[in-house]
Specification:
The chain has about 150 residues and is mainly alpha-helical. It is about 80% helix and about 0% strand.
Length: about 150
């Protein structure tokens, strides 16, 4: 048996408490300790999933590391299909987040370009307005001279 006695039950209970905390959308309050020499692949995968979700809740994750860990969980043959499925769902979620982040940065860059273009157009409008006023002034002055002659 991987865990034996009270220590095993405590570790599993702590892991279950952490999973419940993460499921509620809160960051974990304490570290998960799996001190046994031999830890089952399922417990190890559960711990990794909890750590991944905790880092995502706190916003302290890098997509590459998370994707690599999730793919490793999915590729481990000794992990239960339920955990592989959960890892797959989270993997899809992380990839969608990355895609949305990239789109948002592109939109932000497009917005900056639009703002710059708008400023340039405002300058052109102001310049054209100034030229129009000067032309009107020249026309008025010309008409005054014609009337005086």
């Amino acid at each position: 048996m991987m865990f034996q006695g009270c220590a095993g039950r405590l570790a599993v209970r702590d892991l279950k408490d952490m999973e419940d905390t993460i499921a509620a959308g809160k960051a974990r309050e304490k570290e998960i300790k799996l001190d046994a020499v031999f830890v089952s692949p399922d417990l190890s995968a559960r711990k990794q999933l909890v750590c991944i979700m905790d880092s995502m809740i706190e916003g302290e994750y890098t997509s590459e590391k998370v994707i690599n860990k999730l793919e490793a969980i999915r590729e481990t043959r000794l992990v239960s299909s339920r955990l592989k499925t959960e890892a797959g769902y989270i993997l899809v979620f992380v990839r969608m987040l990355d895609k949305n982040k990239k789109e948002m940065t592109e939109i932000g860059q497009g917005k900056e370009a639009c703002v710059l273009e708008r400023d340039q157009l405002k300058k052109q409008v102001d310049e054209c307005r100034y030229k129009l006023e000067k032309l009107q002034q020249i026309y008025i002055d010309t008409e005054k001279r014609r009337n005086m002659q």
